[in-house]
Structures are given as structure tokens and as C-alpha cells.
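User: Hi! I'm working on a homework problem where we have to compare a predicted structure to a textbook description. Could you give me the structure for the chain below?
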Amino acid sequence: MREAVLPWLLCVGALLPWLAVGETRAATVLSIGDGDTIRVLEDGKRITVRLACIDAPELAQSPFGQQTRQNLQTRLPIGTPVTLAVKGIDRYGRPVAEVIGKTNLGLKMVEVAQT
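Assistant: Happy to help. Predicted C-alpha cells:
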């Protein structure tokens, strides 16, 4: 049992700095996973971040998964500096944050979905 818990604890321990809900962090966009997941470089570390407050279709959910990913890529080009307002950690151990570039990206994604 301990062997199964140790890797999980190590993962959570590595993310402890992210657990400060309400904290903001500066990062740079490395890539877009899908319509609600990005990879960033933050303090020299590559981190996968889920956008807070939205749930976009998965890439396999054609055609909407690809459309939402392309929309996010257009709004958040690689190399864009962003601010991450940390909200928590998802069930996969990824930080969940509001991603703010020129605007709040989650809010913009929801606005586009409604039009």
C-alpha cells in the first residue's frame, strides 16, 4: 500500500507551490493541448495547466474538439506571457488556473461558445 501512495505524494509535493489558491504566477505559453489545457514554462518548469471554470470538448470529439483547440491557439500563441491565477488542482494533479493574457482566456472561450 505504501508503495502505491509514495509516487502520488511525490507528485503532490512537487505541486505544493500551486496549492496556494488565489496566488498569481507569471508564465509563458509553450503549447496548447486542447480547448481547456495548456502547457507553460513557469519558473523554469514545464507545467500542464487546466483553464479554470470551463470544460471544452476533447480533441476526439470531432469537429468541436479541434475547433476549440484552434480557437485557443489563435487567442494564445506560443511564447505569449500569461498570468496564472491559481484556483486548485484537478484529479490528475494538474494546476487549475484562470489564464490571463490580454484578457481572461477562459471567459473569452465561453463567450465564443455562446455566439
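For your comparison, note the following. The first strand starts at residue 24 and ends at 34. The chain has three helices and five strands. Good luck with the assignment!
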